[in-house]
Write a structure and sequence with these properties.
heterodimer; A: alpha/beta; two-stranded antiparallel sheet; B: alpha+beta; four-stranded mixed β-sheet
Chain lengths: 254, 379
């Protein structure tokens, strides 16, 4: 089975600070990493391969330095990587088109696994868009995946309800972080990953040289959340009833 | 000089740090309180190849260079100094002498076991009346047919109660002084091998330390490491490497103390301001950070020189001396910064303070490190 894992290099969002005067996130010098849930996607791909056999390819659309991060997924057990260099201006349309064209260049995939979303933008668009562009079924928000040679069954969290869905291949699944616990690679696997190939493809290599984004990003700003900073200092019983009163006035109770 | 980790070292550091933060650190306080050996952590370290980090691929290890190894000991010790020293002793003091002085048969037999972590490694040189002065060892080994018969008592043996493979030093020819000392690979299953008292220590509670007693213990003569009389040379060269391990452990402990101090000083308010806004605290943090960086660089320098195949007695002694003294100072200041809270078991700095204290003592006291450094200067 040919399995493709989509993985994104993101800044470590836990380290981002917002400039208090401009409201802009300060991104310089922030370490980069593989988006957390993408590691769950990779872990799931490796588990499927361990069960039904095949090959796991990590596919990243990103800047050249993403190659270094992809090695982490190869160390976990993926077999090879493809890095599509991202154009200066990209949105979800551009990224998902590049991913689908890269998969076509690979000769297609039986199973494509994406995270439900990346931890930086958390739009959740890439998986569904790629499935749409490739015209294949998609099973989103999977928290349990059972792959068999002929079909894949997924338990999915759709927010207001849990459903179980089944699909033949090819299929694209998006996974939530509950799906598994990504493994830590051993030292031997890390050392071995140096020998695993990562191909770098430009947009022209996959026939997507003149892609234009549909969205123009004008600015990115942190959202200021103000707090009311009310402290109840009376004795416990009185404080509790005052707290309940004020929550009720805010319409937050019942 | 280039001070950036390679791509591979970064991957290894990230893996090691994730393991340390998610699996080792959360249990460190409890293991310390219960004086309980970190079995689970050691099992994970073995699975991930860290326990046998320096053992070559040929024998089932990853064959890491000393710089990366030192970095790993720093990360582990930042989470749990006891787990750090068990790992350091397993690699530097037990696996390394077999790698460098062992026969092919000895390497084939013991290194894969150590790489897999099937047995924990230990190093038994110190005796009640012979620590840094190995010339006065009283443990003796007498050749009798196909076996050496070893008699004696060793003390302060890290991992003593858990060790399965121990490098033991004993006198084979008293008339030759230090040239009459030999080294042996001893298995804990040998007849006459006993674990003596387990010590109640100030710190590194989770690393068990004990006496080892050998009573008419037969050791097959093929377990002699090197030749008869090589023991002193083997011990000295092994301890040079061990000191890089202890320097790394000390850097890890000090780094944890610094991070806790930064966090606490920014969170705790006095006179309406976080205490980090007071210059007295800022100076302590600045000095801690500077000394820790210096200690780390000295440690890496010794590690780089070791990888280049150089004699590193001076460099390793400098790294161990400076890193251990820095760990004691940094953890002491960390308690000062935490105030009354730092003196309680609610906060981790009291454990760091207790754990740091041993680093200026074992594998050669600070005073012995100065002797080593001076003798290399005055040669």
């Amino acid at each position: 089975m040919n399995i493709v894992v989509c993985a994104k290099q993101v800044v470590d969002v836990g380290e981002i600070k917002v400039n208090p005067s401009s409201g802009k996130p300060m991104l310089e010098g922030i370490p980069k990493k593989i988006s957390d849930i993408d590691k769950n996607a990779c872990e799931e791909a490796i588990r499927v391969r361990e069960k039904v056999g095949g090959k796991v390819t990590v596919l990243t659309v990103g800047t050249p330095d993403a190659k270094e991060r992809m090695k982490e997924l190869l160390a976990m057990g993926a077999d090879n990587g493809v890095l599509v260099t991202v154009p200066d201006k990209a949105d979800h349309l551009v990224t998902s088109t590049l991913i689908s064209k890269a998969i076509q260049k690979m000769g297609g995939a039986d199973l494509i696994i994406c995270a439900e979303a990346s931890i930086d933008q958390f739009s959740g668009q890439i998986g569904p868009r790629v499935a749409g562009l490739l015209n294949i079924p998609q099973l989103t928000y999977c928290y349990k995946v059972t792959a068999e040679p002929q079909k894949l069954t997924a338990e999915r969290n759709l927010g207001d309800r849990l459903v179980t869905s089944e699909s033949s291949y090819p299929v694209l699944v998006t996974v939530t972080k509950e799906v598994n616990q990504p493994r830590l690679p051993s030292l031997m696997q890390i050392l071995g990953s140096a020998k695993k190939p990562i191909e770098v493809w430009g947009t022209s290599d996959i026939g997507a040289a003149d892609l234009k984004p549909g969205i123009e990003t004008i600015d990115i700003k942190g959202v200021a959340m103000s707090r009311k900073n009310i402290v109840f200092k009376d004795d416990l019983d009185e404080s509790v009833s005052k707290l309940a009163d004020s929550l009720s006035k805010e319409g937050l109770l019942g | 000089m280039f001070f950036e980790l390679s791509e591979q070292q970064t991957l290894i550091r990230n893996m090691d740090r994730e393991l340390a933060e998610k699996e080792i650190a959360p249990k460190a306080a409890e293991l310390d309180r219960n004086e309980e050996f970190p079995d689970e952590a050691i099992k994970r370290l073995a699975e991930l190849g860290i326990l046998g980090a320096i053992i070559p691929e040929k024998y089932g290890g990853p064959g890491l260079d000393t710089v990366t190894y030192a970095m790993m000991i720093m990360e582990i010790s930042r989470a749990c100094a006891s787990t750090g020293v068990v790992t350091s002793v397993h690699n530097s003091l037990c696996s390394w002498p077999i790698m460098y002085y062992g026969s092919e048969e000895q390497k084939d037999k013991y290194l894969p076991i150590l790489a897999r972590g099937d047995r924990i490694g230990a190093f038994a040189a110190t005796e009640p009346d012979a620590g840094s002065d190995l010339g006065s060892l009283s443990t003796v080994a007498e050749l009798n047919g196909d076996n050496y018969i070893i008699n004696g008592t060793k003390t302060f043996i890290t991992s003593g109660p858990r060790a399965g493979i121990v490098i033991v030093f004993a006198v084979t020819d008293r008339s030759k002084g230090t040239k009459g000392i030999s080294a042996f690979i001893v298995e804990s299953s040998y007849k006459g091998y006993k674990v003596g008292s387990i010590f109640e220590k100030i710190g590194i509670h989770a690393s068990l330390t004990s006496e080892l007693i050998f009573e008419d213990m037969p050791v097959p003569k093929e377990n002699l490491l090197g030749k008869e009389g090589d023991g002193f040379k083997i011990a000295m060269a092994t301890l040079d490497g061990g000191r890089i391990g202890i320097a790394s452990q000390a850097v890890g402990i000090a780094q944890a103390a610094l991070e806790e101090s930064i966090k606490d000083s920014q969170a705790r308010h006095q006179f309406g301001k976080p205490i980090s806004s007071f210059q007295a605290i800022q100076w302590m943090l600045a000095e801690m950070a500077t000394k820790i960086d210096a200690a780390r660089l000295l440690t890496y320098q010794a590690a780089i020189r070791k990888d280049q195949g150089a004699r590193i007695s001076k460099e390793a002694a400098m790294a161990k001396l400076y890193a251990s003294e820095t760990a004691v100072e940094a953890t002491n200041n960390a308690i000062q910064i935490h105030g009354g809270y730092g003196y309680t078991r609610e906060y981790p700095v009291e454990r760091l303070y207790r754990d740091a204290r041993i680093t200026t003592i074992y594998e050669g006291t600070s005073e012995v490190q100065k002797m080593v450094i001076a003798s290399s200067l005055l040669r």
